[in-house]
Specification:
By secondary structure, this protein is of the alpha+beta class. It has one domain: Glutaredoxin (3-Layer(aba) Sandwich). Strand 1, helix 1 and strand 2 form a beta-alpha-beta unit. Helix 1 packs across helix 3. It is globular and about 30 Å long. The N and C termini lie close together (7 Å).
């Protein structure tokens, strides 16, 4: 099973670039085949962003649920991903 992770970003956001890097590294560490992730540009997918309740960037959703409304620490992100991966197995 895989976990779907989305990182919500906006153009020019330096914290968003960092969030993308952290998420990419985390996905590789935990098994790239187990984590499916994508970057969501809030300007291009505004309706979806509003529907999830994203109010600022970066934000991270896991399995279609907004989990982080700001940049989490690497440990908090790892814990959230491992929790979802454990539930999937």
């Amino acid at each position: 099973m895989t976990v779907k992770v989305e990182v919500f970003t906006s153009p020019g956001c330096t914290k968003c670039a960092h969030a993308r890097e952290v998420l990419h590294k985390m996905a590789d560490e935990l098994g790239g085949d187990r984590i499916q992730w994508r970057e969501v540009d809030i300007l291009k997918e505004l309706d979806y962003v509003v529907a999830l309740g994203v109010l600022s960037t970066p934000a991270i959703a896991i399995n279609d649920e907004l989990v982080f409304t700001g940049l989490p620490s690497a440990e908090k992100l790892r814990t959230a991903l491992l929790d979802r991966l454990d539930k999937e197995t």
